[in-house]
Backbone:
């Protein structure tokens, strides 16, 4: 996509939904309801202006936003719709400064939509980038935290009018502990805004171009559908990824542990992969893909599970015994591969001290 | 005690500790460590000035303070010592106004000491009164909440430097839910300061003279010890209460439920009460005293369990099979007996919809 994204319009939303869900690598929550809300705002005449990272002034104040809670609850308990807006206002009041732009903490899943929705409501632009380049389960796993920005003060807002400001913590792990506890009485879902960042910092620390990336990825799938081409091949071509396996889910172990969906799926290859045994470990997101007992694609690289027919992404909670899937590996952004990033989002951080991260081949992404 | 209390000195602390523990009716946490901290502050040359309710100016800003958490944790995890001071500073920053005086949310138990400690640290006076006149387990059970003051914004501070401000909630029950969840990652103990109150409101809503009351009560016990008189009779005389039973604990059922110690003790009377069967239900505090199957003393009136020899109070967690105890009923303050108070701290609020509150005879307390 050569043109530069300056605004998200109604026509873009379906594609962004698909792209964001793919980048969710099984987690991040479902962007569907957020998409409908964005559409509603646009139909009221509001707009979602997008600015590229490069256009952020050094001293612009950028607030990172997202919904926090259990993805499953996000489906069952529909947001009031202004949770993130109220969290933004609470942060503005706490710091005494107005935001100049918004950015997604997490492009993967539902949090692709939240800052766009708030942008429409607040009359602010949303930055084309995010703090993960995918989905991760915890707040200290943003590139903001990894590259030195403290997320406090952070503000949480729920649909009942509760506002909680976490003003100080020893580090962002403690912020995660506190916020995770406080979100429970909030009905396991809230909008969250973290401490404003400068434009100069965001230009350096954000994973760039990820709204464009989600849009382009979703369009590739939709175009493939419209022209009867293979959507899976289209995703791989778009992302510089690799088809890891076409397979049937022959076993599924998934349970809730500490508020996370934890488990693994066992795969039996078919087609070109007949006779191969696969396994994917998950903790909200897909973490490690194993082939015949060897870890092959490892977090933070993206493991994506698509329906083998439609090419549409399947999230962790929608996995079922017997499903026929295509498993893709997509290389993560270089910002997630540095030593400081791997300490926070590498395999050891997810309970795999024995697995060393080996990067997939670098991305061949189109210029954005 | 005819003289008016203008300052708490080292010589008062042991008596206040005993009196506060008696007014804790089994709960409220142990005031022992708080007493040692107050003593330490006084020995450093700091002071704990006390002002009577009547001396509060209409527009004085009064902040209610207390420790929040599990009483058992308060014994095992010793406070850093400035939790309530940091919570006070957070509320001052949140509201942009400095406190003129401090007051205890709860005179019963450990929270008698917290505002005195903070008063010494902050150079502020502590008001002779509190928001419960005893101990209760939850935040909406203060006379502040009952008589119309909203407790938000409220600030919580722990020993690690975490500061959480609960800025808004639909009501004080929701504040309780949120704070109770947030205190868990704080190690189940924090200092808590609630929204500043005016002097005019506090004069009307506070249970008056309760520091003096704790001091006088404790002195009665200590004087009885020193003069070989009966400390139990001294407590009863001081408070206008009644000896309900001298008894042996023949069964003790106590478990943790939702963070509270819940259960009951079964009593077999001795002495003047030989042949009688008693029972005390508890939920952190003692709630209902039953004699031969009939509810006789009912929350919010105070049920106090003393060691039958020493007259010293026994808290819920220190109850043991076989202990010989004296059970006293002490009438609560009239502020807890109004219809609006009984909705919040009457038997139905504690899960006894079938029991109607019947007040004990009114207090015959000495003028304070």
Residues:
């Amino acid at each position: 996509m050569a043109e530069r994204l300056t605004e998200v319009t109604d026509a873009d939303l379906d594609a962004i939904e698909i792209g964001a869900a793919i980048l969710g690598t099984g987690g991040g929550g479902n962007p569907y309801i957020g998409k409908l809300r964005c559409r509603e705002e646009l139909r009221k005449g509001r707009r979602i202006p997008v600015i590229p990272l490069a256009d952020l002034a050094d001293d612009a104040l950028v607030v990172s936003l997202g919904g926090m809670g259990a993805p499953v609850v996000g489906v069952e308990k529909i947001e009031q719709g202004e949770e993130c807006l109220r969290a933004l206002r609470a942060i503005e009041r706490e710091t005494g400064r107005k935001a100049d732009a918004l950015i997604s903490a997490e492009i993967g899943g539902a949090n692709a939509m939240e800052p766009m929705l708030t942008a429409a409501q607040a009359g602010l632009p949303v930055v084309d980038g995010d703090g993960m380049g995918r989905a991760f389960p915890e707040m200290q796993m943003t590139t903001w935290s990894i590259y030195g920005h403290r997320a406090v003060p952070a503000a949480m807002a729920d649909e009942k009018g509760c506002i909680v400001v976490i003003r100080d913590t020893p580090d962002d792990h403690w912020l995660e502990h506190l916020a995770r506890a406080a979100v429970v009485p909030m009905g396991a879902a809230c909008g969250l805004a973290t401490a404003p960042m400068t434009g100069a910092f965001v230009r350096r620390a954000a994973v760039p171009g990820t709204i464009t990336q989600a849009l382009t990825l979703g369009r590739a799938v939709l175009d493939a559908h419209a022209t009867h081409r293979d959507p899976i091949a289209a995703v791989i071509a778009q992302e510089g990824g690799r088809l890891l396996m076409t397979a049937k889910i022959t076993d599924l172990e998934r349970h809730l542990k500490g508020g996370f969906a934890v488990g693994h799926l066992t795969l039996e290859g078919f087609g070109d992969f007949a006779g191969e045994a696969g396994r994917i470990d998950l903790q909200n997101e897909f973490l490690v893909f194993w082939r015949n007992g060897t870890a092959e694609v490892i977090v933070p690289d993206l493991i994506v599970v698509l329906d083998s027919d439609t090419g549409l992404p399947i999230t962790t909670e929608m996995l079922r015994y017997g499903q026929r899937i295509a498993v893709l590996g997509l290389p993560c952004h270089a910002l997630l591969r540095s030593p400081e990033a791997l300490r926070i989002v590498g395999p050891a951080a997810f309970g795999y001290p024995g697995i060393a991260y080996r990067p997939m081949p670098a991305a061949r992404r189109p210029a954005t």
In short: Chain A touches chain B at residues 90, 160-170, 174, 177-178, 180-182, 184-186 (CB under 8 Å). Residues 132 and 361 of chain A are 19 Å apart (CA to CA). Chain A has eleven helices and 17 strands. The longest helix of chain A spans residues 210-226.
